[in-house]
What does this fold into?
Amino acid sequence: MLVYVHRHMHPSTLSARPVLDAVVGTASQRTLFEYVHDDALLSLSFVLNIALAGLTILAIVVLARGLTDPRARLITVSVLLISVVSISSYTGLTSGLTLSIVEMPPGHPAAGRTTAGEAGVLIMWGRYLTWTFSTPFILIALGLIAGSDWTKILTSVALTIAMCLTGLAAALTTSALFLRWWWYALSSTFFLVIVYILLVEWSAEADLTGTADIFDTLKLLTVVGWFGYPVLWALGVEGFVVLDVVVTSWGYSALDVITKYVVTMLIMLYLADEPSEIAGGPEWGRSTRAIVATDD
It folds into this structure.
């Protein structure tokens, strides 16, 4: 029966199978779930972020009740979606849905290792989904606070998506060691362009807008925190394996706390009084102008 099925599978299905195995792996979700929760520290690095994301969502709802300015409300929605993405993504990690055991290529320090009885190391690729969908909302909020235009904001969003996806490619590439580091170099290049936008372009615009005080704090937390991600990648199980899986996971989780929840709360506390520097007025964001009736 197995031979019959194999011979009658569509060629496109056969060719797609190695790609699917590279992403989801062959270990069952139950195996990965048990592996994570058998280690209390590893488990807590996921569960803690679910709790903090939930608390952040509740705090945003409370702080946003009195907001009426459309620009302030758009920034609020943007930071709200950061935690919405995070709580969903960390649930995927906690359940084993977005974890895989990936066998490293020859020459990698973890080549030949086994995890949960399988060849390879634990790759938390669900984190890349978190970053791909949450970092754009961070940049939208920061860009709006700086008073930037939508061209620069959307450019930064496109670059951060490219940064996260090339980072994911680096984590999942098993064909050759140099290709993993090539993807890493591409991701780092996109990251440095985003840093330039934050530190140079948007800083200058925040000075003109009058939001420099709050923006300087937010950009420093964001930039310093974001620099930690490629450093952890290089030192963790995906790179030189100086740090083990648990330490790497806690490092990523700690950086998420700073760059997502702490940044979000600072923004919400700033927006609570609807400062004039970010207020857009009742007509801001409308796609059509109000029709004013006049006498003939």
